[in-house]
Give the backbone structure.
Amino acid sequence: MISMKNIRKVYNTGKVSFEALRDINLEVEDNEYIAIVGPSGSGKSTLMNLIGCLDTPSDGEYYLSGRKVDSLTANELAGVRNREVGFVFQAFNLLPYASAYENVELPLLFSGMRSKKRKKRVVDLLNRVGLGEKLQNKPTEMSGGEMQRVAIARALGNDPKLILADEPTGNLDTKSGAEIIKIFDELWETGHTVIVITHDMNIANHCQRTIKLKDGMIYNGNGFPVKKQTASAAGLN
Amino acid sequence: MFQLLSIRQFFRDMRHQKLRTFMTMFGILWGTAAVIILLGFGTGLYKYQIKRFKGLGENICIFWPGLTSKPWKGLPRGRRIRFTEEDVARIKASVTSLKRISPEFARSSVPMKTGRNNLVARVAGVWPEFSEMRNLIPQAGGRFINAMDMAEKRRVVFLGNRLAERLFGQGDHVGRTFFIDNIPFTVIGIMSPKEQNSSYSGRDYNHAWIPSSTFKTMWSHRYPQMMIAQAQKPSMMGRVKKDIEGVLGTKYSFDPEDTEALMIWDTTEGFKFFATFFLAFRAFLVGIGCMTLVTGGIGVSNIMNVVLEERTKEIGIKMAMGAKKRLIMIQFMFETILLTAIGGALGFLLAFGIMKAVPPSLTENIGEPTVTLAGGLMAIGIIGVIAIVAGFFPARRAANLEPVKALKLF
């Protein structure tokens, strides 16, 4: 699913350059359920942006579903995000003026799905997350848990293999958070690869394996950096 | 559906930001109105002036007798050069670049008498062609002098409209008889009122015209006061002048290069100057309007930059969902063009409203403001260019946002 080799990410802000990630070697098999944990500033979000093709690495090679994606153009990356990755954000990132229906429709519009098929797909997706009754509700008329479910429905739009979630329960109460995790469980069970960034050790422990980040590097459980991270070497099986 | 989404969002934004939207559109509205109004008044004034200019006649050249200023073939300078009606007939027969020509015999302060009025006015003796050259158009029911009048030396008269009014008062006077220098004449036509901004011996509305043959029997003039020539085309006027000078120069022995042997008034020269002047004048007016419009365009561009700031997150979301650069760009361009189009349309309405509201008392002096199709299309073209330029830069900025930064994820 994912293969990263010697990935490095450097941010240049004027005179100061900051190495957000270094020596990242990561292999993810199909249908894994992974938690990325680490303190603030450890590079979790940067890693997720790279995995999700929102950003490109400064160095290193990245293969997503067997395709080399580390040096694609902006438009090619847009296509990859559209078809192969589903994002779920801590702040939901729904369009505030648009209804649940319109929000879920977004990635389908970008992929050029035909109107009839699209309509059915949007309704199916919202039914799947239990919001079949709230098609026309706007985010402002929904609870946090409902908003996150809309976001998940949106992430599933073009049926991507990979679901990336950045602190998906960070803004939710315990009960809603548990509901969201339950949906991720279902997605994993139906064959998706799910990667969750979290601070919540309960969620991390719930996952198949945990990747620990510190100072832009991947550590194993012992706190030592590892050159190559595989399911067997660092997973919490 | 996507376009629909974005249009809906656009109008939602407009509602939420009423003042901002209004101010933006007002810039375009005002600029458009300025372009259209200035264009309209410029064109109206131009057409009005053209019409007045043509009151004297189109493409005509007037020749008066003169004095030689150079010795020629042993003859001294200072000789009087005059031409006769027969000379004019010879010119008509030999100069091919001519369209029409007529001598004009003239006598001023000729006494005229009707049952109720006595007055004096200028009387001219001319050929039938004179009417077309000098735009003397008869009012309904009347006519100008014709060949039969000429041949039979009829005592018929064509009257300027104001002269007719002074003689007879309001009404239709064709067929009435009155006395010119104590000889009875019949009115055969009255001139349609016309705009005229140049003339010799006074405006046409106060003149009377009779056949040249009749004129000569009345007053025994040997030489016409002048002759009027019309070229086939404005560009041929130079040749007409040269040929006429050639014909008369041979007969009366003067240097064809002598500019004073005949006095010449070529109205096409004034017209050329006038046309150039007005072209510059109108360009100036439209230029002012365009500047206003450009200022409006800068306003739109600024607003779209503000919109961009507000929408950065939204753009980030769309990019994360796989929206390509082009799509983001199109959305921004589309909104700018829509905003400009609405402002422009309102500007057109305002301009036409103002032009319609101009009172007739004003249009009498400056002409009726008119927007030609070409002018309107030009204005639309300018607005379009401004919209595209105003939209392009914010749109490109939007499209070049990095998704991560737009989402403010780090």
